[in-house]
Amino acid sequence: MSAFEALSRDLAADDPLLAAALVNDPTGEGEAPVALAIGPGTERAASDYSYGLEAIREGHLLHWGSARFLSTDDDDLALLAGDRLYAAGLERIAALGDAQTIAELSGLIMAAATARAEGLPAAAEAVWDASCARIGAGS
User: What is the pLDDT of residue 125?
Assistant: First the structure.
């Protein structure tokens, strides 16, 4: 089961509003920047890292209006779903006992949100790329 399929299943089970917002054919799974996180630092639990990172990425995209597998015109629902996905992703990776990656992700979430709020989407994407590359390398 892919990370998108697992996330969709979990969201559908969580809340009927989120279930109704799921996209039938989502795009973007396994693409950059999350693809950069595939490497020696994540190979021991690749599916858990993929789930966690895709959830956090989707949470970020929901907050900034360009989600991949959830679609809603309700800004409040998008914000809440984004928060739910941030939490789900962090929870999945925290369960691995990987404090270094949790610290990296905390910095990523803050820096990417700051860049977006300042109107610098390219800088936000650069933060994503750099953080995912460090996670994949295990550094």
Answer: 94
